[in-house]
Amino acid sequence: MPLKARILNPAMSQAKMSTKAEMPEAQPGDEPDDVLFNTLYGARTIELNRPRKLNSLNGSMARKIIQSLMEWEKSQMANVIIMFGAGEKAFCAGGDVAALAQYNTEGPSGQQKSKDYFGLEYQLDHLIATYPKPYIALMDGITMGGGVGLSVHAPFRIATERTMFAMPETTIGFFPDVGGSFFLPRLDGQIGTYLALTSERLKGVNAFYAGIATHYIDSSTLSSLTSRLAELVFKDYTPLPERHAIIDSTIQEFTTGLPPHEPILLAGPLRAAIDRCFAHDTIPDILAALESENTDWSRATLKTLHERSPTSVKVALRQMRLGRSWTIAETFQREYHIAAKFMQHPDFVEGVSARLIRKPPTTPVWNPRTLETTEDAVTEEFFRVEGEGRLPLFRQGRAADYEEYPHAWIGLPREREVETFVRDGGRSKKDVMQEFLGRRGSKMGAREKVGEILERMTVEREGAKGRRELVWKME
């Protein structure tokens, strides 16, 4: 049965969601203050409190957060959930992969510990992705790996001038997990594939332009914003989309403008080159396309790809192509099996050890060593999950699964929205701009984002009565 058919088949869907996760219990060795919870009027705050480790996520933190979220879901007093990181450096720099690499050296029993951690992390990420109350992530500082899982599926993701986003997994012999299979392929064009394979970083406002964040504000206003959000009161019968609209307009009150000297990075000729090169479905074709570009950027990107784990790069590309058809629940269930197989692969321990444990860091020795010697059959093995149990999830039913983010309207306009509107025909540049500024309530950044899309992807022609109309460029 084709993948798409299996996703939409009710029987398959019922079987997939037949098991529910059990509430995690505290374990010996859990730190008492690695995550802090607070109540401020109608707000419930979650503070990731490991600043010396850049608030990296561990099992102790995940267990506490799950328990609190499940309790707040039932509380009529909890209106808004706000997550942030302690200190000024990081929201969350990822999972504690150094501990997982150490587990893996202990053989099958240690690999099972790592697998259990990923199961717990993905259960938390899915809970956030389908949470029935407004959830806001303050992505102030480093937001990578596991920190992305705690934020990117939320309806509100606030970037600041200190935001540093990346999915760095291919640098350590892993794959872009925490729901990367879902959110990365749904970014504009081939941006997601580019970020997944290269581990490229996006700083500050460019995380906002790329669709990673839904809002951009100055870090100095975060405290005032939190206080204002805590004052919001909703009637019990107010539907979630209306609550989201109120929060969206509240956040926009705290915007202080876009940084004047930071244009959209993934734009113009660079963005066009990314879409050309990373649209291919095989690594050899991507490498050949980069070679044919023959620019400083393409040469640097080729060098980057050859430095990453060959297995990780090939798995990530396959993941990007398959993930576009996965639902949000299926994403975490499938990633659970992929992660388990990486725990048995030598590249994860080698990558983490070389990059993060050894002092000074060393160059990893991958196995296989090059993209050219990594066979496709090796890649396919990571996606074989037939006969294995599915990861149980905390939230079940239709509200706990979807094929597109139900809150996608909160962020900046997406390129495919603009394309659909332009292709309807008879639209001038002014028409398009007015339409999307209207849809987004004149949201800060919408004019710049739509303007870049129109500049890169449309041409003007003379229409009826001499009126200038836009035409979408043919691929």
How would you characterize the overall build of this protein?
The chain contains 21 helices and twelve strands. It has helices at 3-8, 10-16, 59-74, 97-104, 108-129, 146-149, 180-183, 191-198, 205-209, 222-230, 240-252, 268-278, 283-293, 296-307, 310-323, 328-343, 346-357, 376-381, 415-423, 429-439, 446-457, and strands at residues 35-40, 43-48, 80-85, 90-92, 135-139, 142-144, 156-159, 164-166, 202-203, 215-216, 458-462, 468-472. Strands 1-2-3-5-7-10 form a six-stranded mixed β-sheet, sandwiched between helices. Strands 4-6-8-9 form a four-stranded mixed β-sheet. The chain has a two-stranded antiparallel ribbon with strand order 11-12. Strand 1 (35-40) and strand 2 (43-48) form a beta hairpin. Helix 5 packs antiparallel against helix 16 (328-343), helix 8 packs antiparallel against helix 15 and helix 13 (283-293) packs antiparallel against helix 14. The radius of gyration is 22 Å and the shape is globular.
Features of the shown structure:
21 helices, 475 residues, four-stranded mixed beta sheet, alpha/beta, six-stranded mixed beta sheet, disordered N terminus
Number of helices: 21
Structural class: alpha/beta
Number of strands: 12
Shape: globular
The largest pleated sheet is described as:
6 strands, mixed
What is the terminal-to-terminal distance? 31 Å
Reading side by side through the largest sheet, how are the strands ordered?
A: 1-2-3-5-7-10
Write down the Rg: 22 Å
Helix content: 40-55%
Average pLDDT reading: 93
Query: Beta-strand level of the residues, as a percent range?
Result: 5-15%
Extract low-pLDDT stretches.
Answer: 1-18
